């Protein structure tokens, strides 16, 4: 059994229990929708390597528009951008 060492899986479950239908967690891209990894790579490259343009609400909506909450990496890396896009 894999333990939740940081509590983010537990936080995700708590958000689901509170009625946040879709809480995005790293497991969301690794286990549930691996195609998201390509989008996260593009966002990381834009932010840290200057490839492409910085993401706006349009790009974030394509990736996270269905979510009502986010937890864990990689979302935390983009907290300022996500807040600005909301």
TrEMBL record:
InterPro entries per UniProt: P-loop_NTPase, Sulfotransfer_4
Protein's organism: Aspergillus ibericus CBS 121593
Name the UniProt record assigns to this protein: Uncharacterized protein
Gene3D superfamilies for the chain: P-loop containing nucleotide triphosphate hydrolases (3.40.50.300)
Entry-linked Pfam families: Sulfotransfer_4 (PF17784)
């Amino acid at each position: 059994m894999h333990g939740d060492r940081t509590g983010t899986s537990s936080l995700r479950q708590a958000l689901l229990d509170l009625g946040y239908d879709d809480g995005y967690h790293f497991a969301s891209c690794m286990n549930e929708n691996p195609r998201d990894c390509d989008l996260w790579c593009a966002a990381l490259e834009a932010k840290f390597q200057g490839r492409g343009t910085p993401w706006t609400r349009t790009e974030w909506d394509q990736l996270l528009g269905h979510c009502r909450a986010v937890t864990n990496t990689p979302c935390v890396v983009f907290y300022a951008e996500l807040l600005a896009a909301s």
